[in-house]
Amino acid sequence: MNLIKDSTLDMFHTRRGARGIEVSAFIAGASIVVLSAVMAKSAGSAPILASVESNRDVRVSPVAFTPEQTSALQAEPAQPQYPADTRWFDGRPVRPAKTIEMLVTAYSPHVASCGEFADGQTATLHSVSTNAGQLVAADTRVLPYGSMLTIDGYASDEIVPVLDCGGAIKGARLDLLFPTHSEALAWGVRRIEVVVWEYADGKAAPNPRRVR
Predict the structure, then answer these.
(1) pLDDT tens digit string along 112-150?
(2) Predicted confidence (pLDDT) per residue in 146-169, tens digit
(3) Phi, psi of 127 (to 5 degrees)
(4) Are 211 and 140 in contact (CB under 8 A)?
(5) Is 91 helix (H, G, I), strand (E, B) or coil?
(6) Domain limits, the chain
């Protein structure tokens, strides 16, 4: 009976020892798996960190331009410098060229002033409404068509063009266009100095017969 009991106890201890070995082996195996996973995770994250670090070191290379491109980028259009007395007419700079003393009269586009020639057009075939109806008749031997003038007391002293002529307008004489005959009469006859202007941009004057 004692032999059976001792044998049974030995078997129990043997099994218990075996189970203990199995548990230990399981724990050891699990530890290895966990450690391997940690190591694998650590190993797997290295390239990502390396990638991030490498991105920090990226430098963008500057765009290379040829000398011609650099000059074009740096160059600024030259702005012409004009004297203080420069004015503008028809989008172009003009400057005073000379002053002439002239006998200045006035007319209107109506029959009372122009008679049979009251057709609403000037000698250069411009409408009498050109330049807001502010234009001048002159002797073209003295002031050719297209001449630019300022006349004290007329057109708010703005520059006006010579676009007309007249049978009685000879020599140093001007005739100023007014919208009504009564305004022309109100001007009367005056002897004043007239400023003649010229283009200051070095370009040729336009053909006054082509400008409408």
Answers:
(1) 999 988 999 999 999 999 999 999 999 999 999 999 999
(2) 999 999 999 999 999 999 999 899
(3) -65, 150
(4) no
(5) coil
(6) 1-48, 87-199
**Cα 32-34-36 angle, rounded to 5 deg:** 65
Query: pTM of this prediction?
Result: 0.62
Q: From 137, 124, 132, 135, select the one nearest 161 (Cα to Cα).
A: 135
Beta strands in the chain (DSSP E): 87-89, 92-107, 136-138, 148-151, 160-164, 173-177, 190-199
Classify 87-199 by CATH class. Answer: mainly beta
- Kind of pairing between the strands at 92-107 and 190-199: antiparallel
The set of residues, in sequence order, having a beta carbon less than 8 Å from that of 154 and lying 6+ positions away, is 104, 134, 160, 176, 187
Q: Is 178 helix (H, G, I), strand (E, B) or coil?
A: coil
Q: What are phi and psi of 195, to 5 degrees?
A: -90, 130
Asked if 173 and 102 touch (Cβ cutoff 8 Å), the reply is yes
Nearest to 162 by CA among 190, 191, 130: 130
